[in-house]
Amino acid sequence: MRIIAPSFTILDELDRQSLPVRIEYCGRICYKSESRIDSDSAIPFVEKMAANGHNSVLEMGVVTLTAVCASPEPIAALFFRQPKFLQIDRLGEDRLLITGSIRALREMRLFHPDDVISQAIARFLHSRHPYFFFEAPATLADVTGPTRVAIENMSLAQVEGLDPPLCAKHRFLAVKFIVNRAVTHELVRHRPCSFLQESQRYCRYSADKFGNEVTFIKPVFFEEGSEEFALWQQSMAAMEAQYLRLLQTSSPQAARTVLPNSCKTEIIVYANLLEWKHIFTLRTSPAAEPSMREVMIPLAQELRRRYPAIFS
To answer: Is 283 tagged catalytic?
Structure first.
């Protein structure tokens, strides 16, 4: 039995990695298979995710693009369709700023195959990331004429250089939390976010890579050395013993039924800065759950330091 403190890590270093590397790192959190990552593993991993329809993993890669249209018709058609999960803003009469995950852009192409802008985006991404778009889409955007659309990629530095209201919508940030499962039950209620979480269904905590033990998060409610903490610790030890015993004859998904909310879990939360601001409004207030406040208050302070114009 192991007891650790909760923590968080802002995954901004992933923003400097390629989309496949980023998606693989986030995806392997679910199965705690990070040890399988090597210099050649990213593209086969994302190809498998795309082919098998593991779409939640593809939400961990976001791109920001500009679309310049030769006529207003494609822009009007795009807004008429109201595509889900995309952030879209005008930068002028003929220019759009579009941010979305690989999943959202793939589904936009799938559900609106006649949309000129979505087909142009698919062609653009296929030329750079064919493992997400297996076939180059037929598109009007590749034909000269009144419906022509030109797509360009926007760098992270360009996104962060936008005016604060636009930056807040188009700058996405991932944070990995190591917390108890009660906290993650609340985190996943924030619908605009994307999540990937360590899976108790597949993780066998009796394995060597987990130290042959269950890890628990130290509760914020009880002082270490108090009678309440001793009672909590005794309960966790009993739950661990029952779990490990069940694993001798049962699968991890069966044995996990005895595990409590205090179990350590890892979860990646990916959202734009506007949604993070909303999360902090709810989760740092005095009425918020104390275990949530324990990680959200220092996270809010750090993002306020990095983006003062947005989080001031």
So the answer is: yes
